[in-house]
Amino acid sequence: MPVADPGTPDARSPIRYLWWVARVQKWPLLVGIGLAILWWLAQALVPAALGRAIDALADGRTNVLVEWSAAIFGLGVIQAVTGVLRHRFAVLTWLGASYRTVQVTTRQATRLGATLPKRLSTGEVVSVGNSDIAHIGNAMEILLRGTGAFVAVATVTVILLSTSPPLGLVVLIGVPLMVGAVGPLLRPLHNRQHAQRDLQGDLATRASDIVGGLRVLRGIGGEELFSARYREESQKVRRAGVRVASVESALEGAQILLPGVLIAAVTWLGAHFALDGRISPGQLVAFYAYAAFLIAPLRTLTEAADRVTKGHVAARRVCRILSLDPEIQGGTATLPADAASDVLRDGESGVTVRPGRLTALVTAVPEEAAAITDRLGRYAPGEVTLGGVSLDELPIDEVRRHILVADNAARLFTGRLRDELDVRGTATDDDVRLALHAACADDIVESLPDGLDAHVAEAGREFSGGQQQRLRLARALAADPDVLVLIEPTSAVDAHTEARIADRIGAARAGRTTLVCTTSPLVLDRADLVLFVEDGKVRAEGAHRELLQAEPGYSATVTRGEG
């Protein structure tokens, strides 16, 4: 079922975050707790009703026996109904907590943008989706059963106190002692789980790096070295897991041993009281039934301590992500209607992208092009204006809506190819086909059995490097932004395809503002204007053939790129 927008979480501490998760789904949680209490109480009252029925049978009171038998049947019906409903609300609470965490972390990742990979490793982010959301969901789900278990133990204690004060006192004193005995295990469990999660995040990062660079590793023969490093880190995770398991095994043992000791004491006292005639046969049977019943709620209470501890550790990692702020903050100004198609200028380098023209940018050092495009796209601070309005005064969303920077680090995602190419959902089929034609990617789609309805695998791994680059270019063209910045859009294709793309980009972007960062003579020769940047400043501008003759630095850069 769809989960509503969760709003802004309180990420100042793990406890506050868990409290926020509980608060935003308070009604399913409260209804589930109510059903859990009824479910546990229906079970807790069965031994008392059974004892009364046995006493009625011993005294020969048939009508009373029938009444208590009916009461036992009614309690069974209540257990069945509330048990099913409680489970449904428990699952709803688990899913709500888990997927609200997915929502807020995904929204935060989108808000952080390029800041996220700079501040956190891939493995640390991946581990949130792999395990932390489940632990947060478990922490919420256990509130239902844990609250009901506490009420059930309290009810049984009251019944035992009213029937036999010594037995009631044993339970009343024993339960806090049992919980207190588990307490010393929670802190080392908390610390060891936190250390293991950090190591798991590092290992996931290492695995991601190896998979992403596997082709390079095979080319340079580095598989054994990285395999040894991965094996070393995986052993660290294993040893950390063993340390966690040692505490968890002690906790699991305590969940059985401590309730067992308490129940054995209650049973032993109850048997002696029955022999002394201080309680009736029915009460003795009830005490034995209570002894068996108490195992479940007492174990649930110790399980609650374990799950809440794991949820706290998971919430700490989520809070670490939610507490980050983007490096680039947006303003509150509004861009005039006609400014989006005006001049885009980088004051630091002097690069000026004129409206309605195909401009090419050549830099002596590739890093200079990356720095300029980062400033033009507002991914790095800079003195950039669009139509005379400074980009740092505009909201980030508005900048992204008007200026699109497409580089070769962009990924293809899993899903239908049609949706992958039209990420904004506004392009018609004709728009998509025109974008594919301009990127010389029609043959890719035609070769797929399902065409645009074909399923794209993770990272588009079924496509070659050149095919991926052409599909990324088609996606950028289909978005049709006011200003499109392309970074080396033809670096992975052959010369024949590159020439066709160079011819078609200008036609596809006619009337729109386009900047292409490249050293390809085929593309440069078709640009309306070429800018040459050296040492971070524009040194020359003009047509490609003119600059080849007039600017030695430009000629050396382009010739090196051609060679």
From TrEMBL:
PROSITE patterns attached to this UniProt entry: ABC_TM1F, ABC_TRANSPORTER_1, ABC_TRANSPORTER_2
Keyword annotations: Membrane, Transmembrane, Transmembrane helix
Cross-referenced InterPro entries: ABC1_TM_dom, ABC1_TM_sf, ABC_transporter-like_ATP-bd, ABC_transporter-like_CS, P-loop_NTPase, Type_1_exporter
Protein's cellular compartments: Cell membrane
Topology term for the membrane: Multi-pass membrane protein
Any Pfam family the entry gives: ABC_tran
One annotated GO molecular function: ATP hydrolysis activity
Chain ranges passing through the membrane: 27-46, 66-85, 142-161, 167-186, 256-275, 281-301
UniProt domain ABC transporter: residue ranges: 328-560
Domain ABC transmembrane type-1 positions: 30-310
SUPFAM superfamilies (alphabetical): ABC transporter transmembrane region (SSF90123), P-loop containing nucleoside triphosphate hydrolases (SSF52540)
GO cellular component: plasma membrane
Protein name (database record): ABC transporter
Species name: Planotetraspora mira
